[in-house]
């Protein structure tokens, strides 16, 4: 995260993201909306994102930790390409930072057999639920399988993704999961973004919750909490918390996470 990116042009932002080669690189600028406290731009190694969850959580942590936003602030709004994103801080010894998922768009359906094939799975590894594209600013194809072992066995390369997409031009990710007692066990593949596998995907977790609610894979109770475990297969276990504020999953899905700072550096341009 670059807490003051004023004066860095778009091309340089993209070059920095490509050089760092992280899932996302975040640049903070003055807000363009009067109700927002900061503008956040998010880049993968290949392109700018309209929305991504963990950059929002991480940026919020740094803005609070650096005093750019008052540490007493429990609620604020960030100016993101997808639109204003409300952030809520659940105070404690380790604050839990929540973002409200933007409006979710339900998209195309995909054949179960074709999804299984491109993932290197058998058709009977998948649950009897039709895979579907959902987006809260970052489109993901959600594919539900029967058990953790099948999630771990899944694989996806760019060639396979392109056959799955057909003629669709917009970059998409593929989110494979299985229901668990705690919520979900998940993996996310994003080869079009230059990310073979993402260890934690906040932008996909809200749509995941909506998809699971629609198919009755989690309790549809307002106020319910559960979590998605992601990144375990690649040795980067992440826990993404979900709170359902609307039992239909239509609005008010919050995604939360703790933040641990691990490095600080200076880049000379």
Summarize the entry for a quick read:
This protein is of the alpha+beta class and 269 residues long. The protein has helices spanning 10-20, 53-65, 112-118, 148-153, 158-165, 202-214, and strands spanning 25-29, 38-43, 48-49, 75-80, 83-90, 96-100, 105-109, 132-135, 140-144, 173-179, 183-190, 195-198, 225-230, 238-244, 253-257. It is built from 6 helices and 15 strands.
Topology diagram in text:
Blueprint: H1 10-20, E1 25-29, E2 38-43, E3 48-49, H2 53-65, E4 75-80, E5 83-90, E6 96-100, E7 105-109, H3 112-118, E8 132-135, E9 140-144, H4 148-153, H5 158-165, E10 173-179, E11 183-190, E12 195-198, H6 202-214, E13 225-230, E14 238-244, E15 253-257
Parallel strand pairs: 2-4, 9-10, 11-13
Antiparallel strand pairs: 1-2, 2-3, 4-5, 5-6, 6-15, 7-8, 8-9, 10-11, 11-12, 13-14, 14-15
Model description:
This protein is of the alpha+beta class. The chain has two domains: 10-100, Roll (Diaminopimelate Epimerase, Chain A, domain 1); 105-256, Roll (Diaminopimelate Epimerase, Chain A, domain 1). The chain has six helices and 15 strands. It has helices spanning 10-20, 53-65, 112-118, 148-153, 158-165, 202-214; strands at residues 25-29, 38-43, 48-49, 75-80, 83-90, 96-100, 105-109, 132-135, 140-144, 173-179, 183-190, 195-198, 225-230, 238-244, 253-257. The chain has a 15-stranded mixed sheet that branches. A hairpin with a 2-residue loop joins strand 4 (75-80) and strand 5. The model has no long low-confidence stretch (mean pLDDT 93).
């Amino acid at each position: 995260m670059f807490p003051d990116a004023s004066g860095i042009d778009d091309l340089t932002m993209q070059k920095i993201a490509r050089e760092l080669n992280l899932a996302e690189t975040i640049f903070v600028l003055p807000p363009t909306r009067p109700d927002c406290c900061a503008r956040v731009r998010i880049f993968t190694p290949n392109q700018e994102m309209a929305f991504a969850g963990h950059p929002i959580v991480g940026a919020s942590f740094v803005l609070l930790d650096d005093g750019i936003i008052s540490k007493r602030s429990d609620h604020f709004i960030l100016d993101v390409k997808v639109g204003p994103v409300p952030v809520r801080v659940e105070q404690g010894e380790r604050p839990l930072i929540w973002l409200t998922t933007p409006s979710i768009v339900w998209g195309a359906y995909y054949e179960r057999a074709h999804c299984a094939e491109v993932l290197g799975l058998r058709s009977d590894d998948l649950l009897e639920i039709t895979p579907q594209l959902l987006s809260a600013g970052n489109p993901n194809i959600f594919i539900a399988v029967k058990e953790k072992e099948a999630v771990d066995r899944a694989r996806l390369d760019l060639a396979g993704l392109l056959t799955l997409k057909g003629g669709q031009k917009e970059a998409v990710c593929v989110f494979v999961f299985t229901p668990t007692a705690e919520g979900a066990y998940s993996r996310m593949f994003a080869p079009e973004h230059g990310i073979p596998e993402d260890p934690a995907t906040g932008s996909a977790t809200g749509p995941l919750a909506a998809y699971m609610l629609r198919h009755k894979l989690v309790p549809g109770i307002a106020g319910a909490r559960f979590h998605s475990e992601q990144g375990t297969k690649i040795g980067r276990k992440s826990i993404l918390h979900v709170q359902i504020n609307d039992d239909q999953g239509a609005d008010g899905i919050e995604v939360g996470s703790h933040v641990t700072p691990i490095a600080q550096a200076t880049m000379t341009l």
